[in-house]
Structures are given as C-alpha cells and as structure tokens.
Specification:
Layout (H helix, E strand, L loop, with lengths): L2 H24 L3 H5 L5 E2 L2 E9 L5 E12 L3 E12 L2 H23 L6 E12 L6 E15 L6 H11 L3 E8 L2 H29 L4 E13 L4 E2 L5 E2 L20 E13 L1
C-alpha cells in the first residue's frame, strides 16, 4: 500500500472517529435538529433514508454526502504520427518531430521534464489493400503532459508549442482532481454523509418516542469519484506544413465541476 493511499485511509478513519464522538455531545441539541428538515453546508448536499433493524434497540440509517470542486489538473495526450515508404526515414522523421515538440514544451512554455511522460510508441509496416505486400511504414509516439495548479493556464501555449514544433495529433485533454483535492472532497462528502445520517436518526427516533444514545457502527457503503472526462475521444490531426508560419491555436475547453459522493451506513443505539 503506497503512502498516499495509507494517508487517505488514516484520514477517513480519523474523521469517522471524531464525528462519532462528537455525535454524543450533539444529542443535547436533538430538539433543535428535529425541527430542521434538511441540512446545507455550501457545496455539500445531503440526503438520507432509513430502514429498521431487526434488533429493537437499534436503528440503521444511510446518509449521502456530495462535495464538488473545479478540477485543478489538466492531462494532455498529444503525439506525432508519420508514414512513408522508407522505414528509416519514417522513424527518423517521427523521432525528430517528437524531440522538437518536447523541447518546445519544456523551453518555450516552461514545463518540467518530470511532467512529460511517454504513454505509447509504435512502429509498424502497412500493407496494400488486396495483397499481403508491404507498401509502407507508420510510426506513432504519444506523450502525456500534466499541468498542475497555476500551470493549467498554459493549456493553449503547450498545444501551440507542440503543434508548431511537429506534433500532429491530440489524443485527449482531461480535467482531473489532484490527489490533495480529491482527498479534501472525500472528507467533505464523508462529513456531510454522517451529518445527514445523524440528523435523520434523531428525527426518526423522536417520531417513535425514542432517544438516540450512541453509535454502534459506521460503514462506508460507496465512495464514488467519476472517471476523468475526455475532451477529445479520438486523435485530432493538425495538418501543419513544414514551411507554414507559426499558428496559434485557441482551444475552447471548460473544466466544469467534479463531484465526489460518499454513502455511509450508521447503526444507532436507541433507548
């Protein structure tokens, strides 16, 4: 288990423990909470459902918390594709164009080499349509560029630098949550889910003339983070002649918002 995942698990455990202990003190305010039909904590939306447990002294409640934020990272996959009848020349052209594209991204835009990673390379023969004869060769090289924090404003400069230096395809552009923001949203959604379950348990118990006196268990039923959204689902070619003047592309892309949803099941003790 890596340190990041271990840290998230420890963080979630601490949040659950703190909220469970704090719930005991919150019981004194059950009368006030009973008059509240819905809790709202800004970007956290809450809902809850209840189900009766077979044990008369407990009640099982599920709560859902949703936290949202604007993604703070961009992942760009772009590449160089070349073809021709001479294998050596096809591979040489591909290598030269990709080297020039990476150099432009690093030197002209200021992206660190550690934020550029090769994701795919292929070099294959091509065949004629009606025979098994080789009629040419094609090479493809793709790289992943990650823009973090303030670097997300460099999306257009990265595309412009790469394309004008020799890149001729964009496979995808994805807006994603950084590890730190993902962890923050997870905790916010978890807090909202447990608060929702707490409030619902008090309202339900009081409607039956009972009191909630403690928590028996807390279980995370689901922890959903949507997969990154591909702005481009397939390679998008840019036909740029070697003799053409520098072209500036302005790609209209919006990050939107990403939601993190947590659902918990809490078993409460009744008196």
């Amino acid at each position: 288990m890596n340190s990041h995942m271990s840290g998230k698990i420890v963080g979630v455990s601490l949040v659950i423990a703190v909220l469970a202990v704090a719930f005991l003190g919150m019981l004194a305010y059950s009368a006030t909470l009973a008059r509240q039909s819905q809790a709202d904590t800004g970007s956290v939306q809450q809902s809850a459902t209840t189900g009766s447990n077979t044990t008369p002294s407990t009640i099982t409640v599920t709560g859902t918390g949703i936290a949202s934020a604007v993604p703070d990272e961009i992942q760009i996959v772009l590449g160089v594709a070349t073809s021709g009848t001479n294998a050596t020349q096809v591979l040489l052209d591909n290598s030269n164009n990709m080297t020039a594209a990476i150099s432009a991204i690093e030197k002209s835009v200021g992206i660190n080499s550690s934020d550029i990673q090769t994701t795919n390379f292929s070099f294959n023969p091509t065949y004629s349509q009606y025979s098994n004869q080789i009629n040419g060769y094609q090479a493809s090289n793709q790289i992943l560029i990650t823009l973090e924090g303030s670097q997300t404003s460099l999306l257009d400069p990265v595309i412009n630098a790469a394309v004008n230096a020799g890149a001729n395809s964009i496979q995808s552009i994805q807006y994603v949550l950084s590890n730190s923001l993902q962890s923050k949203l997870q905790n916010q959604a978890l807090v909202g889910a447990i608060q929702s379950a707490n409030q619902t348990s008090l309202l339900t118990a009081q409607s039956e003339g009972l009191s909630v006196v403690g928590i028996q268990s807390v279980t995370i039923l689901s922890n959903n983070y949507p997969q990154p959204y591909d702005t481009f689902g397939a390679a998008v070619p840019f036909a740029v002649e070697s003799s053409a003047s520098t072209i500036n592309y302005n790609v209209p892309i919006s990050p939107g918002q990403t939601q993190y949803t947590v659902e918990v099941q809490v078993v409460y003790l009744l008196s």
